[in-house]
Amino acid sequence: MNNKLEEALKYCHEKSDPKENLETTPPSDEKIRIPCIWAFEVFPPEYIENFHKSIEKLGWGEEKIEAADYFQETLYSMRHQNYGRGWINLGYIVDESNESIMSGVKKGKLSKGVKQINASIFQPIPSTTILICQFIFQDELACNIEKVLRKEYKTYLQENKKSVSFIRPENQKRNAIKLELEFLNSICSNWLKENFNGLYSYSFINENHPTCHLITLEKNIPFEKNDDTRHYNSYMSILNLNNIYDGWIDKKQNGLYLSISSWRDSVRKSLVLSYNEQSNKILEEEHIKMYGYDKSSTTLNSLTHSLDNNLGIWVLNVLLNSYSYKINSLRDLYGNSNKKDFKQSLSTLSVLDHEVVQVQKNIIPFISEMKYFCKDNSNFIGKEFISLANKTNSISELFQNIKSSIQFQIELLEQNQKMLKETSTAVREVNGLLVSDKIAETNIKLQKSIKLMTIVILILTCITTFYSLPDDKRENITSYFQNLLKR
Predict the structure, then answer these.
(1) How far apart are CA 347 and CA 41, in angstroms?
(2) Is the terminal CB of the chain with fewer CB neighbours within 10 Å at N or C?
(3) For residue 192, how many other CB atoms are within 10 A of its CB?
């Protein structure tokens, strides 16, 4: 390290780092928690049998005492109707070590730090079942996000191929927050992979489970500017809760905010819900006793299933994007098939044809049913969130925007699916012609080889016959050919 870099680094450590650490750290009277995360698994036609096998493995279908225990039969009925919209409350799941014998409680091996899971099934269309799991964290895990924000960092140098970068405390804190969020997401995602093998648990779609995490604050309010939050690198900025152009608020103006995660290198699609625990009006005072005793816990309890319709609609939009991505990936793979390497081309196309069949089993019914789903406005009734940055008199509503996006993308998906089918058929026909040409070319070579072998066999036969004759006849034949050559 040269002297100039050493001096610059020393300046950062003594002057800018303390200031930056202070600006990015929450005030002492702020409390930040992630009390829960919703994670989602999807079961299209190809994977629905896995859901029932998972229920059997977990032992949740062994005792059927109450009506709620017959959820598999209810789900079967929903999936076999022409219009299968519905919702099923699966109750809550506790760890297998819990000795609770309350009815409706299901047991399973929960990850460390998870208090319980509130589960439900959202059935928007007959062919697609969405499992919604709300993972409630124990306090230690819920408070980890604040610990990361309060940690102090020092600038360090990162050597690149042709340059050197100064990695400041703000950048380190942003990366640490991303890692912590993904750590929490992975706890939920891994539990789904271990217990429910749906679409997002397999590599076929090549995406991770969608999630939605809830951030609660005790002092400041999401997306509101004050002395704590107005600077660009405040802790609210690091949490992505400061830019009004990214934020939406419940239409009832009750203090519940929503944003779509904007991490550039995120490994999954995520929503972010947030509110201030003291000032929110998500629950009216007279309703608090219905959900508990203190405002903090009752507000969280009230969100358990009240957002299922909104979250399910968002997951449908994510699923639509996942299908579109898969279709477009297959299109490019067909385009890149190697025509020069005949054997490799045939092998690749065989795999691609198999994947196309897999895609069509799930996408074709999805497209057809989603067209009818979008025609019914009642499917989009639920909480509505309006933009915090309305520039005109017309209010921008998030889920109406999502509805319009789904309608537009469904048309594109249908066209792309048809084009993929036509492309695969055309490529298969071209390869069929190539195979025919190869066979014809091989046949011609084979015929030439047979002709040559016939001549060789004839010559050998003549030679063998000649030497098998008596001496006098061999001499006569030899004399005949010698005289013939002299003429």
Answers:
(1) 32
(2) C
(3) 21
CA distances from 44 to 41, 129, 414 (A): 10, 6, 17
Question: Amino acid letter at 180?
Answer: E
Q: Are 75 and 84 in contact (CB under 8 A)?
A: no
- The pLDDT value given to residue 84: 67
Q: Give the relative orientation of helices 48-58 and 169-195 as an angle to the nearest 10 degrees.
A: 80
Query: Where does 135-234 have alpha helices with state H?
Result: 139-142, 144-150, 169-195
Residue where the block lists tokens 């015929």: 447
Q: Is 210:269 a contact under the CB 8 Å cutoff?
A: yes
Look up residue 462 and give its amino acid.
C
In a 10 Å sphere around its CB, with 0-12 CB exposed, 13-18 middle and 19+ buried, how is residue 229 labelled?
buried
Distance CA 461, CA 453 (A): 12
CB 73 within 8 A of CB 55: no
End-to-end CA distance of the chain: 100
**Tokens (6 digits) for 358:** 């897999």
Entry pTM: 0.84
For the chain, percent of residues with pLDDT exceeding 90: 47
Length of the chain: 487
Residue type, 449: S
CA angle (186 as vertex; 184, 188 as ends), nearest 5: 80
CA distance 350 to 458: 45
Nearest CA to 131 out of 68, 79, 196 is that of 196
Q: Please compute the mean of the pLDDT values over residues 222-232 and round it to a whole number.
A: 80
* Strand partners for 204: none
